[in-house]
Amino acid sequence: QVQLVESGGGLVQPGGSLRLSCAASTSIFSIYTMGWYRQAPGKQRELVANITIGGSTNYADSVKGRFTISRDNAKKMVYLQMNSLKPEDTAVYYCNAVYSGPLGHSDYWGQGTQVTVSS
Fold first, then answer.
1. Largest CA distance in the chain
2. Mean pLDDT across the chain, nearest whole number?
């Protein structure tokens, strides 16, 4: 079982920045593809960005050029740097860890952190 704990959410004005962090409680963090998802009120949860074990990244079109995902395998952390925030970025942001391979399939979620972009 892997526990994921997000932090760094809050209230920010449009155009501002926030950095989300996710701490993972596993000794084999490096085998997981890590991702950030978000869910706005009345909407489905959507992928924001993910990063593979090799460091390849993938972003939703709506955040390309504004958000950056990164990971630190030694610290078992994943980050989401969010710049030029817009009101439509308001959502609960969730950290995700997924593994599919010889050891089977595992999928874990954090409890979420609220990001509100408003003036």
1. 49
2. 95
